[in-house]
């Protein structure tokens, strides 16, 4: 069955960097576009970034462009999100998702300390 296990979240100071990982199994990882989303307290889940399957081209939400980098390692069935210059308002649970699969992992909590 499909499994997505996010990890790497913790409490961070403003301006800190953090790298999240998402280990995938149960589907053909290399064939799927992979995405990161986040859900802040009291808000709807929002899309953060996408990395395509064939050429690993990427797209970012405007608010994270230039600070976040999404990458993938198909040999490890893992997608990453490197986040620089984190802001307190980016406190959220971060999730990864295969774009075309209707499945979510448990997410990993990133808490910005003000």
Question: What is the gist of this entry?
Answer:
With 114 residues, the chain is mainly β.
Can you give the mean pLDDT?
Answer: 96
Helix content: under 10%
Multimeric status of the protein: single chain
Strand order of the largest sheet: 2-10-9-4-5-6
Q: How would you sum up the major sheet?
A: 6 strands, mixed
Broad shape: globular
* Count of discrete alpha- or pi-helical segments spanning 4 or more residues: 0
Q: How large is the radius of gyration?
A: 13 Å
Which sequence of SSEs, written as H and E, runs from N to C? EEEEEEEEEE
The helix-and-strand class reads mainly beta
Span between termini = 40 Å
Which range does the strand content fall in? over 45%
Q: Give the tally of β-strands.
A: 10
Low-confidence stretches: none
Tell me what the structure shows:
By secondary structure, the chain is an all-beta fold. 0% of the residues lie in helices and 47% in strands. It has strands at residues 3-7, 11-12, 18-25, 34-39, 46-51, 58-60, 68-73, 78-83, 92-98, 108-112. The strands form two sheets. It has a six-stranded mixed sheet, with no helix packed on it. Strands 1-3-8-7 form a four-stranded antiparallel sheet, with no helix packed on it. Strand 7 and strand 8 (78-83) form a beta hairpin.
């Amino acid at each position: 069955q499909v499994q997505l296990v996010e990890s790497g979240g913790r409490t961070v100071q403003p301006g800190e960097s953090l790298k999240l990982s998402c280990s995938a199994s149960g589907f053909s990882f290399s064939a799927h576009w992979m995405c990161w989303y986040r859900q802040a307290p009291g808000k709807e889940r929002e899309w953060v970034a996408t990395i395509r399957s064939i050429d690993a081209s990427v797209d970012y939400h405007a608010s994270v462009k230039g600070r976040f980098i999404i990458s993938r390692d198909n040999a490890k069935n893992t997608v990453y999100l490197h986040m620089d210059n984190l802001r307190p308002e980016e406190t959220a649970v971060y999730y990864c998702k295969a774009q075309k699969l209707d499945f979510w992992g448990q997410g990993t909590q990133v808490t910005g300390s003000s």
